[in-house]
Amino acid sequence: PEETRDLRVDGMTCASCVGRVEKAVKRVPGVLEASVNLATGGVRVRRLAGSAGDVALREAITRAGYEATLLS
Ligand code: 9UX
């Protein structure tokens, strides 16, 4: 089964930021899809249930140079 996580990402200001964040999150094992909403500063992640941990998601975004907060 799949599950969805929403995170807020601070520091994204342009389309390249969106690409960086999506690419970074998609590289986390178990992640199926990552889509950023630049207007809201959110990223919705679809992943295999019980795969990538929330910490791994946050760290991937942090390593890409942005601040991430898990919302749900
Ligand atoms: Mo362009 Mo977005 O440098 O940080 S990638 S504003």
From TrEMBL:
Localization: Cell membrane; Endomembrane system
HMA domain residues: 3-69
UniProt record similarity statement: Belongs to the cation transport ATPase (P-type) (TC 3.A.3) family. Type IB subfamily.
Protein name (record): Heavy metal translocating P-type ATPase
Organism whose genome encodes this protein: Pseudaquabacterium inlustre
Organism taxonomic ancestry: Bacteria, Pseudomonadati, Pseudomonadota, Betaproteobacteria, Burkholderiales
Span of the entire protein shown here: 76 to 147 of 826
